[in-house]
Amino acid sequence: MKRTIFLTICSLFISLFSFGQTSTEVFETESNGSANFIDNGVIFKIISHVGLFDIQANFPNTGWNGTANDNRYIDNSNDTASPPSFSIKTTSNLFKVNRFWMYLSALNLDLTVAGTLTVTGRLNGITKFTQTKSTGFNTSMATANGYTLIDLTNLNGQNYSNIIIDELRLTMGGGYRYAGLDAFTWVKDSGIVVLATNETTSSKKGLSIYPNPTSGSLSITTEENAPAEVYSQDGKLLKTLDMKKGTNQADISELPNGVYILKTPSGSSKIIKK
Fold it and tell me: The Secretion system C-terminal sorting domain covers which part of the protein (predicted)?
């Protein structure tokens, strides 16, 4: 029997990303020691898993292009914890990653040591992709100031740049004990639902779903006459339901097992039940 799960999330502020906005964060306006950064109106957190990662702004000309105006980046300076690992994460938005530059070395900044970089994209705590890069790293300061381009459009022969995530996790292995990240290019795209962090169990406009979880049949009670839309977790519209004020019967048995988003209009904002 199919078991389709809806999780109830109410009292959300919802908006949509602008169409196809690609942005590159070079960290030059960020504060030294900060554990977050803001780019294109989105707040990203720097989460340290092993070692302490934050914004570095103490060493001029050490960013990916080595100019006087390129002084800031994310790194784990003077931290001996191993294997180094950190995430770039936002809890209020979803995004896609295009590319970024990384300086990967021993603690003494020796680029010639052998190591690995594991790149993992996660959404709501679920791994959407993971790849370990073990070759092709820059070993000379003469090129890109020692940084290596990590291109998610072609990472180990795969394109991960169109996968929607809320967390990019990077883990170093082998001889790599120091990591610096600069020129983080990401996409703020249309059709990606933006959820605020104030998720509660009540809503100004009632919307209830029963049963939850369901094998396919649903009773949906709403306070408005408006169509409802069913989305996958990666933002794809899968089904439109005709809703009237009161209790409506619906069926999503044709959808595979998983978690989906039921979205209905509510004034100028949206209310989503997941």
Answer: 209-274
pLDDT value of residue 232: 74
For residues 150 and 100, the answer to whether their CB atoms sit within 8 Å is: yes
Q: Which residues of the chain have pLDDT under 70?
A: 1-20, 68, 189-206, 233-235, 265-274
199 Cβ contact list (under 8 Å, min separation 6): 9, 10, 11, 12
DSSP state letter for 158: B
Instruction: Provide the pLDDT for residue 117.
Output: 98
As given in the structure block, the two tokens for residue 99 are 């590319």
| pLDDT, position 189 | 58
At 144 the three-state DSSP class reads: helix
- Residues 6+ away with beta carbon under 8 Å from 206: 221, 222, 223
* Whole-angstrom Cα Rg for the chain: 22
> What are the structural domains, with CATH classification, of the chain?
20-192 (2.60.120), 207-273 (2.60.40.10)
Can you list the positions of beta strands (E) in 17-154?
21-25, 36-39, 42-50, 54-56, 73-75, 85-89, 96-105, 115-123, 126-133, 148-151
> Environment class of residue 167 by beta-carbon count within 10 Å: exposed (0-12), middle (13-18) or buried (19+)?
buried
Q: What is the DSSP string of 9-52?
A: -BS--EEEPPTTEEEEE--TTSPTT-SEEEETTEEEEEEEEES-
Q: How far apart are CA 161 and CA 155, in angstroms?
A: 9
Please state, in angstroms and rounded to a whole number, the distance separating the CA atoms of residues 137 and 114: 9
